[in-house]
Amino acid sequence: MESFGKNFLKHSSPQNMKPTPHQRGETQPPLEMPYQGDLMYLPSVQTMTMPRIDLEAAMTYRMSQRKYDFKPISREALAYALYYTQGVKRTIEHKATFRTVPSAGARHAFETYLYINKVDGIDSGLYRYIASKHALVLLNVNVDAKTMKEACLGQRMVEDASVTFFWVADVQRMTYRYGERGYRYLFLDAGHIGQNLYLIAEQLQLGTCAIGAFDDDALNNALGIDIDRMFVAYAAPLGVVLQNNK
Ligand SMILES: Cc1cc2nc3c(=O)[nH]c(=O)nc-3n(C[C@H](O)[C@H](O)[C@H](O)COP(=O)(O)O)c2cc1C
Predict the structure, then answer these.
(1) Is residue 246 scored above 80 in pLDDT?
(2) Domain that holds residue 106
(3) Alpha helices, DSSP H only, in the chain?
(4) pLDDT at position 2
(5) If you measure from the C-alpha of residue 88 to the centroid of ligand 1, how many angstroms do you get, rounded to a whole number?
(6) Which atom number of ligand 1 is nearest to the Cα of residue 198?
(7) pLDDT tens profile 17-62
(8) 31, 66, 80, 225: which sits with the fewest CB atoms below 10 Å from its CB?
């Protein structure tokens, strides 16, 4: 029986690869998708005093949390989580960014979309994190929590959490350098981002849960992304964990 997975592995192995756009001397795609609208700058993590946590403790006590109190988190907590999942530490202009997570060839091909449900001082709606500016842009105020939940196959945590992160791959940014093999790296890169959110949630005494189960078409559509060049790879809520709920 034909296996798409095995075929993909075969066709993305170095000996079967065609020259990549990079090898053909084509121009590199931009480091970030263009944005429209006003930037809402987020507080810098350097100005924040967050609770300290031992790394071993964060890894030990981290667990997936699926039940949330419908309570707001602070703008600082959101800014902190965004910086430590995708924040830009250094940029080589038009060439590469270096961020708080690793990325194959420093391609950093993800854009973070956010469904903000309850964050202090920020209206609910759909936003994008502009990593280069450590700022948000509003995309759509008319998206509701129920739509996002349904696109995630009815997973209730999306409706109850303070915010849900959607990591959207800008495919060309990765395949420019690595061709079809770049798809492997996109999924690997997404894993690092998700793990950082788990660790940061632990530090902030909040909860998260990786989400890989979603209706691709419904979610791509809800986020309004250009499916010819982008797809949602991974998602995760962040919120106040419901206590005494066994
Ligand atoms: C790639 C990936 C996708 C996942 N997707 C979902 C999901 O859609 N819904 C969910 O409730 N948990 C999801 N999880 C969470 C796992 O179920 C969870 O990590 C696992 O049960 C182990 O529990 P722990 O994280 O508390 O150690 C996902 C985890 C990973 C790594």
Answers:
(1) no
(2) 33-241
(3) 4-11, 55-61, 75-86, 145-151, 157-160, 171-178, 182-203, 216-223
(4) 81
(5) 27
(6) 25
(7) 899 999 999 999 999 999 999 999 999 999 999 999 999 999 999 9
(8) 66
Tell me whether residue 221 is in a domain.
yes
Which residue has its alpha carbon closest to ligand 1 atom 15? 210
Domain membership flag for residue 72: yes
Q: Which two tokens stand for residue 134?
A: 């450590």
In this structure, what CATH number is given to the domain that contains residue 146? Answer: 3.40.109.10
Identify the H or E element spanning 236.
strand 230-241
Ligand 1 site residues (CB inside 6 A) read 63-64, 66, 155, 209-213
Mean pLDDT of 107-132: 98
> Is residue 70 over pLDDT 90?
no
Q: Whose CA is nearest to atom 6 of ligand 1?
A: 211
pTM over 0.90: yes
Q: Is 97 exposed, middle or buried (0-12, 13-18, 19+ CB in 10 A)?
A: buried
Closest residue by CA, ligand 1 atom 3:
212
